[in-house]
Amino acid sequence: MPEIRLRPAAASDIRLLERWDAQPHVISATTDDPAAVAAVLPGATATEFWGIAGTAVEHLPNEIVMRAEDLVDAALAGLDQGEPITIPSLPDAADWNAYEAARQTLMPNLSRSIPAPRYRVAARAD
C-alpha cells in the first residue's frame, strides 16, 4: 500500500478559525446585496488536485473521500442552516460545539506573563 500524506491544517487556517466568531458573517462589497460568508472545513475530497499534489485520490481509503458534489451540497445546506462553520463529514454538530466551548475556555489562559503555578520552580539557593 502506498504511503498517504495528508496536508495538516496550516497555521493560517488555525488562526483564521481562532478569530472566527460563532455567528455567520454577512458582507456587502460594491453592491447593495449582502453576501453571507461561512467557512467550510472539508476532509479529503475527490478532485484532480490529489494527483497534482503527488498522491492520486484512488490511493486514499474510500471511507475518507467525499465526492465533490456531496461536499458542495453539504456546504450549501450548512449555509442555508446558518452555520458559521460547516464540516460536511461531521455527523454530530454537538462535537464541534464542544470543541468550540473548550477553545473559548482555553483562550484567556494561552498567553500569560508568568508560568502556570504547576510549572513554577521554587527559588533556588545559590
Explained architecture:
By secondary structure, the protein is of the alpha/beta class. The strands form three sheets. The protein has a two-stranded antiparallel sheet. A two-stranded parallel ribbon has the order 3-6. Strands 4-5 form a two-stranded parallel sheet. The longest helix is centred in the last third of the chain and has 14 residues, at 93-106. The protein contains four helices and six strands; from the N terminus they run αββββαβαβα. The protein is extended, with a radius of gyration of 20 Å. Strand 4 (44-46), helix 2 (49-53) and strand 5 (65-67) form a beta-alpha-beta unit. Residues 1-12 have low confidence and may be disordered. It has a domain at 11-90.
Entry keywords:
two-stranded antiparallel sheet; 33% helix; alpha/beta; 4 helices; disordered N terminus
Summarize the helices and strands and which ones pair or pack.
Elements: H1 11-19, E1 25-27, E2 35-37, E3 39-40, E4 44-46, H2 49-53, E5 65-67, H3 68-80, E6 85-86, H4 93-106
Parallel strand pairs: 3-6, 4-5
Antiparallel strand pairs: 1-2
In short:
The chain has 126 residues and is of the alpha/beta class. It is built from four helices and six strands; from the N terminus they run H-E-E-E-E-H-E-H-E-H.
Q: Which segments are poorly predicted (pLDDT under 50) over 5 or more consecutive residues?
A: 1-12
Q: Percent of residues in beta strands?
A: 5-15%
SSE topology string: HEEEEHEHEH
- Radius of gyration from the alpha-carbon trace, in angstroms: 20 Å
Give the biggest sheet: 2 strands, antiparallel
- Order of strands across the main sheet: 1-2
Number of strands: 6
Helical fraction: 25-40%
Cα(first) to Cα(last) distance is: 59 Å
The quaternary organization reads as single chain
Number of helices: 4
- Please tell me the overall pLDDT: 78
